[in-house]
Amino acid sequence: MINGAQPDPVKRQYEAYPYPVRDPAREMDELMIGSPSHPLEIDHFIFGGNRDWTQPTRILVAGGGTGDALVMMAQIFADWGANVELHYLDMSEASRAIAEARMAARGLGATYHTADLLSAPDLGPFDYIDCCGVLHHLPDPVAGASALKSALAPGGGIGAMVYAPYGRAGVYEMQDVLRTLVGNDQPAQQVELSRRLLSSLPPTSGIARNPFLADHISAGDAGLYDLLLHSRDQAYDVDGVYDLLDASGLELVSFSMPGRYNPRPLIADEELRKRAEALSPRAAGALAERLAGNQKAHVFYAVPKGTGEGRVAEVKGSAVPNMVGPRGAELASAIWENGGFTITVDGLTVERNLPKEVAGIITGIDGKRDLNAIGSMLGWDAKTFLLGFNNLYQPLNNFNFLRFSARRGL
Ligand SMILES: C[S@@+](CC[C@H](N)C(=O)[O-])C[C@H]1O[C@@H](n2cnc3c(N)ncnc32)[C@H](O)[C@@H]1O
């Protein structure tokens, strides 16, 4: 604080309530994985599924918080034996201490910076930047995204998450209510008074009617503060994401769950479905978001404008598929036993029917064999195999279960 200036309220918040809440003492219980920035996703969306990971790769976690993306990347890249140098940046010292302790618990290292995200270009260039849940808290998100763009090395890209408005229905009016009632109190008192208000809300209030926020509200004081007492929180709808990127000199490569941006399965009527199918990807995504009404966030990959061509991995014989997380065996048995699978994302259940034979394809996916090798292993001719694989790929790509990465060089 200089010359009586007020401390940044966002910094004050994350010093008092690092978020998300993580306990370094329980770090070894499990490796938390997520999106963006799972290394398989980075390879798939930014490097065509074919990056040589023996080449030096510099990665920045911008607004790294309590360390989720840092720990996930550091552990997986270490397991791979990849040549990756990780940097963590956050303005909150309390958050950094937790991230550092989690990394230390795993015996992993990184370079830590307590600084503003706008200083990212001074630390670069980076081949990849993670920025999850941060841009929407900046005083000038375009300046923030532009700074990240300037910090990229040629060929580099960004994975980001920003909050979305419709799945967070009720949040923004309750933030206004609490700002009016407790905005001038100290953080601990704000939490206490907010809990009193929340304990007897009118049943008609937006927050009481949104079942998808329960996990955030029940995530202790830090979760409550992050959701309802944040001093700077601006949600982006699909158009907002496109506009933010455009104004920052970036272009969208893909959302990490492309299936959530497709209105087709949300419309039963054939005539209306055809109209939706005629829309541009941006307009279709905006329609799907409004129609489903359940998106709390957008997770996406972006690169400097004009460099998006060829970034996303394609289905081809030499592509190496990987199941993300432990879902492969589960999916294979669901397809084999039920002729398809069902997934529920933020309250919306999607069913996909698939021919039973494709379950066999999943069992051939080991992160090493390419599609040609899996086809030969199953004894299918190349054309039949690619047809079958495409059937499988579409739903798995839509919900981020399968990503291409050859883990070249490792
Ligand atoms: C909601 S947390 C997200 C943390 C982490 N990325 C994650 O996904 O778990 C937002 C983080 O951004 C940091 N942050 C906000 N504004 C920042 C800025 N201008 N410069 C650096 N860090 C910032 C906060 O300190 C906080 O740790």
Task: Tell me what you see in this structure.
The model has no long low-confidence stretch (mean pLDDT about 95). Helix content is about 40%, strand content about 15%. The chain has three domains: about 10-165 and about 235-305, Vaccinia Virus protein VP39 (Rossmann fold, 3-Layer(aba) Sandwich); about 170-230, no CATH class; about 320-405, no CATH class. The chain has 17 helices and eleven strands. With about 400 residues, the chain is α/β, with parallel strands linked by helices. Strand 1 (about 55-60), helix 3 and strand 2 form a beta-alpha-beta unit. The protein has a seven-stranded mixed beta sheet with strand order 3-2-1-4-5-7-6, sandwiched between helices. The structure holds S-adenosylmethionine. The site of S-adenosylmethionine (SAM) has 21 residues, from helix 1 and helix 3.
Q: What characteristics describe this protein?
A:
3 domains; 17% strand; 17 helices; two-stranded antiparallel ribbon; binds S-adenosylmethionine; single chain; Rossmann fold; 410 residues
Q: CATH superfamily of the largest domain, please?
A: Vaccinia Virus protein VP39
Beta percentage is 15-25%
Gyration radius (Cα, Å) is 22 Å
**Global geometry:** globular
Sheet with the most strands, sense and barrel status: 7 strands, mixed
Order of helices and strands: HHEHEHEHEHEHHHHHEHHEEHEEHHHE
What multimeric state do the chains show? single chain
- Determine and state the CATH class of the largest domain: Alpha Beta
For the record, the count of structural domains works out to 3
End-to-end Cα distance, whole Å, is 48 Å
User: Helicity, in percent?
Assistant: 40-55%
CATH level 3 topology of the largest domain: Rossmann fold
Number of helices: 17
Bound molecules: S-adenosylmethionine
Helix/strand/pairing class, anyone? alpha/beta
> Main sheet: which strands, in order across?
3-2-1-4-5-7-6
What's the total count of β strands?
11
Please state the average pLDDT score. 94
Low-confidence stretches: none
Named CATH architecture of the largest domain: 3-Layer(aba) Sandwich
